[in-house]
Write a structure and sequence with these properties.
Blueprint lengths: L14 H10 L3 H21 L5 E4 L8 H4 L6 E6 L2 H10 L2 H4 L2 E5 L12 E6 L9 H14 E10 L4 H15 L14 H10 L2 E8 L7 E8 L1
Parallel strand pairs: 1-2, 1-4, 2-3, 4-5
Antiparallel strand pairs: 5-7, 6-7
């Protein structure tokens, strides 16, 4: 049996980092506007997925999407994260009436501790852009395909926009200046590459939702299990 994939960036998510992560999305008008747009896209994606009743939020982080997921009164929410610190922060920081509706689970996204076809949909936000290795991305996607019955809602950074062009130019400049760190935990994936990986993992692409078309890197995909 092969060992579950472990990525270096996941080691930092202790409780102190979880608290900083929670505050990050609440500070300043630009962060609050970004969160509002994230929620707008998420609501649309959930509608396109058919308003699923049983949803796995993975990784759930500090629970910032729990109130949105709980807007459907009869929705069953399973919130999973590799970090117990994140789960603890989420349970402490989100409204009690929301927390009581959520079942939490500490598990790796690469080895989800759930049975096949356990949920109607998997809500996977702010994870895939941390994974630079194509084999790791496909391994993750195959786990999501195994656990969902119907759909996956997933976000990542894609190319073909101003911010991706700017980031690539900055990275090239750092290399030219000899300032490359050798460690990277955020990646822009060409849209064509990501979409080929979705298909390889057993999905069909139902919808593409861009944060700000032609400007921002964030894109949300609604994937449907074949």
């Amino acid at each position: 049996m092969t060992s579950p994939i472990k990525l270096k960036f996941s080691e930092k998510y202790d409780e102190a980092h979880a608290q900083r992560y929670l505050r990050k999305h609440q500070e300043g008008p630009s962060r609050r506007l970004s969160h509002w747009r994230d929620e707008q896209m998420a609501r649309k994606a959930l509608a396109l997925a058919g308003h699923p009743t049983v949803v796995l939020d993975l990784p759930c982080g500090a629970g910032r999407f729990w109130p949105l997921l709980a807007e459907k009164a009869d929705r069953v929410i399973v919130a999973a994260d590799n970090s117990e610190g994140m789960l603890q922060t989420a349970r402490q920081s989100q409204p009690p009436e929301i927390v009581k509706r959520v079942r939490t689970l500490q598990t790796s996204a690469f080895d989800i501790n759930m049975e096949d076809n356990s949920v109607d949909s998997i809500f996977c936000m702010r994870l895939l852009h941390h994974i630079g290795d194509a084999q790791h991305r496909v391994a993750l996607l195959k786990q999501l395909n195994r656990v969902t019955r119907e759909t996956v809602i997933i976000s990542l950074w894609v190319d073909g926009n101003f911010k991706a062009w700017k980031r690539k130019r900055q990275e090239r400049q750092r290399i030219n200046d000899g300032k490359e760190s050798g460690y990277q935990n955020r990646f822009v994936v060409p849209a064509a590459t990501a979409e080929a990986e979705f298909i390889e993992a057993g999905f069909e692409i139902q919808e593409r939702l861009d944060f700000l078309p032609l400007y921002a890197m964030w894109r949300v995909y609604v994937l449907r299990k074949k």
